[in-house]
Design brief:
mainly alpha; globular; about 55% helix; about 50 residues
Length: about 50
């Protein structure tokens, strides 16, 4: 549970700085459906698949 809280805190920080919903790897928007399932997602589907 601690990891989830850390990830959500980081997501909130991205909301504040205006980068929430943008892929950290390619900079493209992360689809809303992915963010609804994984609110702390930092990568779009294609970039997440590369890891």
């Amino acid at each position: 549970m601690t990891r989830e809280l850390v990830e959500l805190d980081a997501a909130l920080a991205r909301v504040v700085d205006g980068t929430y919903g943008l892929c950290e790897s390619c900079g493209r928007p992360i689809p809303l459906e992915r963010l609804q399932l994984l609110p702390a997602a930092t990568l779009c589907v294609p970039c997440a698949g590369k890891r």
